[in-house]
Automatic annotation (TrEMBL):
InterPro entries: E_motif (IPR046848), PPR_At4g14850-like_plant (IPR046960), PPR_rpt (IPR002885), TPR-like_helical_dom_sf (IPR011990). PPR repeats lie at residues 5-39, 76-110. Coiled coil: none annotated. This is Pentacotripeptide-repeat region of PRORP domain-containing protein. The chain crosses the membrane at residues 41-63, 75-93. One of its GO terms (biological process) is RNA modification. The keyword Repeat applies. Keywords: Membrane, Repeat, Transmembrane, Transmembrane helix. It comes from the Eukaryota.
Length: 267
């Protein structure tokens, strides 16, 4: 097949993945296979990302084996990482950690993405000790300096297990400045566990980072209301009004008889 054909397939599949249209990307990959065009490295990475997002583990594993047989030797680590992260975010914890070990047995050193996968898997399964051990090995053995993503995994690890004080301690002692994503997820965990006092402490950080963010104020106000602290809920809402912050309406979509989606605003 002419080279321009392979390039066209690559551009199309990669474009669908970037737009989050994973099912269409996989359908175009299937058509590419039928047409007899060999996928290049860029297509492989795009399809693995699509598999991870839609949970098509069988196809992901097939692509992993395909890559190992091809002349992608410089990029095989990316294949391993995609499989590990794909399993992890899909909740297949044992498989993710098994591939993390297999990668090393095959002679490939884990990098930062590999550890993101391992930490995510541990978080999903509540494997706190294992997760902390991976985090320590990452820093001490492989000399990988933790960025906000890695700390976010550790915060999530503690939060899912209900160990919120330890999660906040990570936030307060980590070597990088926390962002609103990490703090927001911890605030949401406080709501799930009903820990109002810790939520108040987290809000101090969030107000500094995102003073106009309505979502965090609403969460805290609802937490006050849930435990009958109407004075606290009222104080938060008055503060929002004083700052000119309005709660943005939520969006809800429902499928109707024609198959179309009807969208409503909700308070």
């Amino acid at each position: 097949m002419p080279e321009r054909d392979a390039i066209s397939w690559t551009v199309m599949i990669n474009g669908f993945v970037k737009k989050g249209r994973f099912d269409e990307a996989l359908e175009w990959f299937r058509e590419m296979q039928i047409s007899g065009v060999e996928p290049d490295y860029v297509v492989i990475i795009s399809v693995l990302a699509a598999c991870a997002n839609v949970g098509m583990l069988g196809l992901g594993l097939w692509i992993h084996q395909f890559v190992l047989k091809q002349d992608f030797s410089d990029n095989v680590r990316v294949s391993w990482n995609s499989i590990i992260v794909g399993f992890a975010i899909s909740g297949f914890v044992e498989e993710a950690l098994e591939y993390f070990k297999l990668m090393q047995n095959e002679g490939f050193k884990p990098d930062g993405i590999s550890f993101i996968g391992a930490l995510t898997a541990c978080s999903h399964a509540g494997l706190i000790d294992d997760g902390l051990r991976y985090f320590d090995v990452m820093k001490r053995v492989y000399r990988i300096s933790p960025r906000i993503e890695y700390y976010g995994c550790i915060v999530d690890l503690y939060s899912r297990a209900g160990r919120l004080e330890e999660a906040l301690n990570v936030v307060e002692t980590m070597s990088v400045k926390p962002n609103k994503v990490v703090l927001g997820s911890l605030l949401a965990a406080c709501r799930t566990k009903g820990n109002v006092s810790l939520a108040e402490r987290i809000m101090k950080y969030l107000v500094e980072l995102d003073p106009d963010g309505d979502f965090n104020y609403v969460i805290l106000a609802n937490m006050y209301a849930a435990v009958g602290r109407w004075d606290g809920a009222g104080k938060i809402r008055r503060r929002m009004k004083g700052l000119g912050i309005q709660k943005k309406p939520g969006i809800s979509s429902v499928e109707i008889d024609t198959g179309a989606l009807e969208t409503y605003e909700i308070d």
